[in-house]
Amino acid sequence: MIKSGKEYSAIVERIEELLINPENIDNPYVKGYVELNLLFDLVADYEETFHPIKPPTLS
Fold it and tell me: CA spacing 20 to 30 A to 29: which of 9, 19, 21, 22?
């Protein structure tokens, strides 16, 4: 669980580092792939809680 904006920023930065290597995206047998997916889940949970996307309003 991400507990602060500072942690969130650090995790997003780590995700960006992992995305540089295409193997981390395509190969489920490498450590980076597993780490990347776990970090994605943490970020998604944090964003749902603290930065939810509001439904559009029709004017």
Answer: 9
